[in-house]
Amino acid sequence: MLEVVSPWRFTFQLLLAFLIFLCTLDNVISGFTSSFIRSQWPSTDIPLDNEAFAVPKGYNAPQQVHITQGDYDGKAVIISWVTFSEPGSNEVQYGKSNHQYDHTAHGHTTNYTFYKYNSGYIHHCLVDGLEYDTKYYYKIGTRDSAREFWFQTPPTIGPDSTYKFGIIGDLGQTFNSLSTLEHYMQSGGQAVLYVGDLSYADRYEYNDGDRWDTWGRFVERSAANQPWIWSAGNHEIEYRHDLGEVISFKAYLHRYTTPYMASKSSSPLWYAIRRASAHIIVLSSYSPFVKYTPQWTWLRSELKRVDREKTPWLIILMHSPLYNSNEAHYMEGESMRAVFEKWFVRRKVDLVFAGHVHAYERSYRISNINYNITSGDRYPMPDKSAPIYITVGDGGNQEGLAGRFYDPQPDYSAFREASYGHSTLELKNRTHAFYNWNRNDDGTRVPTDSVVFHNQYWGSHHHRRRLKKNHQLWDATGYTAAY
């Protein structure tokens, strides 16, 4: 008997097929520059007495609670918080049932000074040996000041493990920042890939350390219940020779720890994790990266560790974009591009996310690896082995938007808009991912740039033939798709 296909279902499948077809084209369709102009919501700092910065009640109550992945494969978290009156307890109690804590982990405490600022007691506690795809509840603090939260561990590492990431950068602590954060929390994202520039404390007199504390309380509403994968930006450097502060990244490194040793890195500023079907590599734009340096040596080794059979989605995070057609920070990432781009192409990196430029931009798959000083192609060229470069430095900070793009739009630029917002990346299976950039349209979340991405490894003809022979996968519509 023939199946009767409803007109709606047929139209939806046709539309999806057309979208996927468009995503396979490289520079066939010209780029788009959005003409949207914001009319409200200036980049104004949230007042310090606003509830967004509220200090939790109780003597020495833990505050600025946040978690990040604590190992290489997602079976551990690092839980961090700050106390002020005294160090207090370093313990984290946790379990699988609310208010029932069967296990206890013990952390350590640190603190620092910056000019005239003295930090609180900063706690970091590793909770490991967790089960995949499990909800855990945890408690920190003691007696009436204790606080309770929860988190969900990722699914088992595997090529078809679905997962939804949020991508946020250059957030700051303005009303636009609040809008971005609230919109992300409505998206269903399970973890944040953060591409640098956190509190913007260096924008205040004497690099006001209190602004690190307000920012920590500000993002706690999300970061206490799901991991934020950290990378550092230029506003985290905080080198102030005039104040006697000559240790770079001092506040950031004390407050935001990373599982760098799990990926054999020598620095918390560059490291890698695996989560669901993704292998995520974090690079430091403001640490040495030329040949023979520690970051260069580590990245060369880490790229060899990537197993696309287990984690097909290879994603790079950094702060300064390698491709950017905005007048702000134009070509600041060129030196890193010259060093690493050939590796990204050779290893078929899927996506490179960056911040720094306070606008949004997505590229086509392009590379400029044939250029050198005396010969070769002098412009970025279409390259099916290259990653897509996405700039998401539009979280909402007080410096405002970067509204001046170069005209005409370069051939490598697919979409660009000077607005605040955030992105989501939903890995559906080993072959496809759904991506959305969401504009903060004067306080309202508006999906503006939506793309279906093909995986670079499983999208190749060889691997697609093997996949067709051995597998049947569910595509994003819920219908069986043969590859």
Structure in words:
This protein has 483 residues and is of the alpha+beta class. It folds into two domains: 52-151, Sandwich (Immunoglobulin-like); 158-196 and 269-481, Purple Acid Phosphatase, chain A, domain 2. 17% of the residues lie in helices and 27% in strands. It has helices at 7-23, 175-185, 210-223, 250-255, 294-305, 334-346, 461-470; strands at 32-33, 63-69, 77-83, 91-95, 103-106, 108-110, 113-114, 117-118, 121-127, 135-140, 147-152, 163-168, 191-194, 228-229, 271-275, 278-282, 313-317, 351-354, 360-363, 366-367, 381-382, 388-392, 413-417, 421-427, 432-441, 444-454, 473-474, 480-481. An eight-stranded mixed β-sheet has the order 1-23-19-22-18-17-16-15, with no helix packed on it. Strands 14-13-12-24-25-26 form a six-stranded mixed β-sheet. Helix 5 (294-305) links the parallel strand 16 (278-282) and strand 17 (313-317). It is globular, with a radius of gyration of 22 Å. Mean pLDDT is 90; it is low at 1-5, 20-29 and 469-483.
